[in-house]
What we know:
The complex is a heterodimer.
Chain A: H1 5-48, H2 54-69, E1 85-86, E2 93-94, H3 97-139, H4 149-152, H5 154-159, H6 161-184, H7 189-206
Antiparallel strand pairs in A: 1-2
Chain B: H1 28-60, H2 74-78, H3 80-86, H4 91-123, H5 128-170, H6 178-200
Helix pairs in contact in B: 1-4, 1-5, 5-6
Amino acid sequence: MIYTRQIRxxxxxxxxxxxxxxxxxxxxxxxxxTSATTMNHMDHGHMDMGNGGTDGHxxxxxxxxxxxxxxxxxxxxxxxxxxxEFILFETLRTKDVGGLVGACVAIFALAIxxxxxxxxxEMLLQKAMLTGNKYAISNGSSSQDTMVISNKNVGLHMMTxxxxxxxxxxxxxxxxxxxxxxxxxxxxxxxxxSVILGAGIGYFLFGWRKAIVxxxxxxxx
Amino acid sequence: MEAKPMSEYFYFSTTVKNFMFExxxxxxxxxxxxxxxxxxxxxxxxxxxxxxxxxxxxxxxQNPLTYGKTETSIQTERSPLFSALMIPSxxxxxxxxxxxxxxxxxxxxxxxxxxxxxxxxxxxxxxAYILIAVILGSGxxxxxFGAINTRNQIKFQALQMSVYDRYDSQxxxxxxxxxxxxxxTNGSRYGSNGNTCDKTAR
Lengths: 221, 202
């Protein structure tokens, strides 16, 4: 491992994004529980103030109904700036600004990790091809024998440990790419912006190591 | 009028309603398995198409001096005359070859796009079984076609390097002594191996 400055920046970026994702998940989970408890508190306050003035009573009642009403409304198929979205799973649901901010940070980190994963896979592939190349060439003593490496070595390339690792990383990359597509499909402006900015900053941090600029493995391209 | 995407989160279900066309629905676990198998084969086809595009690009950027050598049987590649015959002899032939590559690339890219968007729409139905089928299909597809891609890339790189070896040994740029010729071609092969390593690792 060569610890140049850029690699150090990249590693720090990875650690920061992982920490941010964990933080965001905790924040969102916390958000769901605290909103439930605050609603309980407001219920008690409503009952206590029921004997008092009518204006306060109405105000509290409208507040409680508002949090439920702003989160109604189904899937809007145009760009909108709301704060209630389902993020991919039924349990991940944003109800207010805190949850949305957490979701934005998590999606931002996910996009950065996606770009880093692509570059990481390409690095692994080049390393694997270098070792495979040396093996293939040292097989023959003259340049003519290297032509015959073609069909014999497909088995070599398929059953190596590095190819299994590449396959698993490919599946993870496919999953993350479809998840980012589905998050973009929520049509929420803030989530879409976080996807775009995350991809941009991820490319900025990791893209300097790319040899091929346009990847044919990119989905939704 | 219902909202177009039926769900906003992943769900597991034993029926697939209105899959991509209006009244196309599958009921029961057999139907779900059928749909998943179809999506799995589409994903493997997509990976295969990408592998074909990669191979096409490799052939398009192939050194013309190596045209006769992509076959693997030893007889055809041992004779240097065959590769000399394969080099195009006129500009119009070169143009035809380029046109064929462009048309082939265009067709493959359109198939690639079609399959890619079809799979995107399938995953957009938020059915968890379909997502799992897509992920497994991409894994299997990459396992088979990624190995083929690597093999092709190494083959074409070896072809490219063999051109310079032959040029060095025949043009007399290295020592004309036989033993030192072998050693120097070996050294130049490893040397050019190092150069290509540096280029690709940029």
